[in-house]
Write a structure and sequence with these properties.
By secondary structure, the chain is an alpha/beta fold. It contains 25 helices and 29 strands. Helix 11 packs across helix 15. Bound molecules: GDP-alpha-D-glucose (GDG). Residues 28-31, 33-34, 172-173, 244, 280, 282, 317, 358-359, 361, 364, 381-386, 389 line the site of GDP-alpha-D-glucose. GO terms for molecular function: alpha,alpha-trehalose-phosphate synthase (UDP-forming) activity; trehalose-phosphatase activity.
């Protein structure tokens, strides 16, 4: 088994050196360093994964004649598979839809978001190009792990080509609330959701992002989740929370490295006697650099006694330098720093020391180790690894982490001084608290956060995700092992042909026909009727429809076929030769009260309605606003509870309906009316939902029990859809 990691940028970046040669260096950034750390440990082997391959763009355009050489070198030396894209395309893709649409929107900056059709097309093209490139290398038993917002369409594109592969997706930036996501044009948002739903497992940093994903699936794709799993068609997508960790040991042990020690010594002498407040960010509007400077200025204004005693060390790492907005941000930042230093500084003291460049690991680790306060105050951030790295470097030194509540890391690092980055007073208050915090409290807070990040480092994070992905994948394989493939269908058909007496029982909705928004529109078409007629006409066959519907509907739709019918989950049956009869004497005194209650709910929820049958009452909400419907459904269940206990009723949660019926009435008891002898040579029962599981569990294990659709089941076999079942029935009906 091989792990295929896919990200926009490879784990190594190509560049041309002064000698004109193409050289490679580890890529910068949180995602690349996290994955590099995990892959290099080889710990994936513990999951039964033998090897890995990292697929992505190599960081520059490679001339066609050089590609074979570059690919070979990347493959051999770095286990990387390059996706060759021209700079111009990559630029339009990355600077376009990625960073002018998804990035601002998902970080809650709708005013900075552009909605450009051509950029959307380019995003589609690049995702397609990745899929094409992957088609060359993917093997059927590979575990595929796609990373981040640049490749949100890729899970489904891979799924189209590799139906059986395990596909995981991890989202490194915030996943926004539905109210933000819906700002995207309808076709785009549907396609992005569909893209993500191609995965077996979608991972997010925080529980809020995961919930936002579920809500988007519900509102955009009309798909509900059950215990974190979304069933769609024949597939299931699980979504869960995996807060990314860091390579704890690397930072924890960094002060033992020679070059880090020498950086620490240098910094110590430069800043002796001063409290160092550190901030490190990529130049980006999401990081709230201006707000932070404004907050620091207010702090200096409020505390003249601290002048000359504190320094804000602001490291700003260049990013997206070609984008005018980022250039303007740089200018504004520098002007503000100039203003603060001009107003408060002196010959001996510079209140803000600013570096606009990438720094070495040694310098970074030394800054983390020595700084008294880390001021990590993004306006929005998926996780923020700087916060965790700062804590990890505090093995022998101490400090205080001030952390924005808008960073994903705030969910885990609850012992930080948590603040709101939108409010000037929050900066002042947080800095005051940090400056005045007693040593004991500083140490206790640091130790508690260090424990957390050492226990759930990048390796645990990756293992957690991959373990969960393998779990979903194995469950799918288990279900797949029940799939009635052509070979098994041939065996089933053989058993059918050999039997001289057969019983075929079929659920109706979701089994023989797809669900319709309005139940009255799910009538059988000519093809279905003709298949049923043919099956029923065979004298070796007894055919029965097992349904929860009312008998009048079944009679109208299926009464013309000479077969058994069961209505209202078994309260009514009609044998092929006889007429309808009730299978018991049922109490109906409760119906009036239940119907009145359900009617009240129907009035409160547009497009819901009540269906009154002889022995049961159902409240349907398929065509409704699904979220409100779910809340109302909970309320209704609650309101029905007392009555149900008093009258001995069952409350059934059907497929987008709640039904109340007498306890003891169920499909299996009803089906006993059709199992007239014990010498059937062939029994088949097909159903799709929870009400069919009773029969799956109860009838003989030699019977063919078939579940239609995805999900756990006691049935022996599975098919993906009513259409596949019809194919099978058609085959059987024309077998003789
Ligand atoms: C995303 C999400 C999420 C930065 N400057 C230098 C440098 N760095 C390193 C830091 C840290 C990483 O880069 C930045 O971490 P972030 O957490 O900000 O990650 P991003 O790359 O922005 O991207 C983010 C992350 O993915 C992981 O899921 O946390 O929310 O936006 O490791 O140390 N390292 C060196 N010199 C620098 O100048 N050596």
């Amino acid at each position: 088994m091989r792990l295929i990691v896919i990200s926009n940028r490879l784990g190594v970046t190509a560049s041309v050196n002064s000698g004109g040669e193409i050289v490679f260096a580890p890529s910068a950034g949180g995602l690349a360093s996290a994955l590099n750390s995990y892959l290099q440990t080889g710990r994936y082997k513990e999951l039964g994964i033998d090897d890995y391959l990292w697929v992505g763009w190599p960081g520059m355009e490679i001339a066609p004649e050089l590609r074979d050489g570059v690919r070979e070198k990347l493959l051999k030396e770095f286990k990387c598979w390059p996706v060759f894209l021209p700079d111009e395309v990559m630029d339009r893709f990355y600077s376009g839809f990625c960073n002018r649409t998804i990035w601002p929107l998902f970080h809650y900056f709708p005013m900075l978001t552009s909605y450009d059709d051509r950029e959307w097309e380019c995003y589609n093209d690049v995702n397609n190009f990745f899929a094409l490139s992957l088609a060359e290398i993917i093997k059927s038993d590979d575990i595929i792990w796609i990373h981040d917002y640049q490749l949100m369409l890729l899970p489904e594109l891979i799924r189209e080509k590799f139906k059986e592969s395990a596909v995981g997706y991890f989202h490194h930036i915030p996943f926004p609330s539905f109210e933000i996501f819906r700002l995207l044009p309808g076709a785009w948002r549907a396609k992005l959701m569909n893209g993500l739903l191609g995965s077996d497992l979608a991972g997010f940093h925080t529980v809020d992002y995961t919930h936002h994903f579920f809500k988007c699936a519900l509102r955009i794709s009309n798909l509900e989740n059950n215990l974190g799993k979304i069933a769609h068609g024949s597939r299931v997508t699980k979504a869960d929370t995996f807060p990314i960790g860091i390579d704890f040991d690397k930072f924890n042990d960094s002060s033992q490295l020679e070059d880090v020690r020498s950086e620490i010594d240098k910094l110590r002498s430069s800043f002796a006697g001063k409290k160092i407040i550190l901030s490190i960010d990529r130049l980006d509007y999401t990081k709230g650099i201006i707000n932070r400077l404004d907050g620091y200025r207010a702090f200096l204004e409020r505390h003249p006694e601290l002048h000359e005693k504190v320094i804000l060390l602001s490291v700003i790492v260049p990013s997206r330098v070609k984008v005018p907005q980022y250039q303007a941000m740089k200018k504004q930042t520098e002007e503000m720093i100039g203003e603060i230093n001009g107003k408060y500084g002196s010959i001996e003291w510079t209140p803000v020391i600013y570096q606009y460049k990438s720094i070495s690991f040694a310098h970074l680790a030394a800054l983390y180790t020595l700084s008294d306060i880390a001021l990590v105050t993004p306006l929005r951030d998926g996780m923020n690894l700087v916060a965790k790295e700062y804590i990890a470097c505090k093995k022998n030194t101490d400090g205080v982490l001030i952390l924005s509540e808008m960073a994903g890391a705030a969910n885990e690092l609850t012992d930080a001084v948590i603040m709101n980055p939108n409010n000037r007073e929050s900066y002042v208050g947080a800095l005051e608290k940090a400056m005045n915090m007693p040593y004991g409290e500083r140490r206790a807070r640091l130790d508690s956060m260090r424990r957390r990040i050492s226990e759930y480092s990048v390796c645990e994070w990756a293992e957690d995700f991959l373990g969960s992905l393998l779990g979903v994948y194995n469950a799918r394989l288990a279900l797949r092992s029940k799939y009635l493939n052509p070979e098994r269908v041939a065996k089933l058909a053989g058993d059918y042909a050999r039997a001289s007496k057969r019983l075929i029982m079929l659920d109706y909705d979701g089994t023989l026909v797809d669900f319709c928004p309005l139940p009255e529109n799910a009538s059988p078409d000519d093809e279905l009727l003709s298949i049923l007629k043919k099956l029923a006409a065979d004298e070796k066959n007894e055919v029965a429809i097992i349904s929860g519907r009312g008998r009048h509907t079944l009679e109208k739709w299926l009464g013309g076929v000479k077969m058994d019918l069961m209505a209202e989950h078994g309260a009514w049956v009609k044998t092929a030769a006889g007429d309808w009869h009730a299978t018991g004497v049922f109490n109906t005194c409760w119906k009036k009260e239940v119907t009145a209650l359900m009617r009240k709910f129907a009035v409160r929820l547009s497009a819901s309605f009540v269906e009154e049958k002889d022995y049961s009452v159902a409240w349907h909400y398929r065509a409704c606003d699904i979220e409100l419907a779910r809340e109302r459904a909970d309320d209704l269940r609650d309101a029905l509870g007392h009555l149900a206990r008093r009258e001995g009723l069952d409350i059934i949660n059907g497929s987008r309906l709640i039904e109340v019926r007498n306890a003891g009435v169920n499909k299996y008891n009803g089906a006993l009316n059709f199992m007239k002898s014990d010498d059937y040579g062939f029994i088949l029962f097909a159903g799709d939902d929870a009400t069919d599981e009773d029969i799956f569990r109860s009838i003989s294990s030699e019977s063919y029990t078939i579940k239609i659709g995805a999900g756990q089941t006691a049935a022996g076999w599975s098919l993906n859809s009513p259409a596949e079942l019809l194919e099978l029935l058609k085959k059987l009906s024309s077998a003789d």
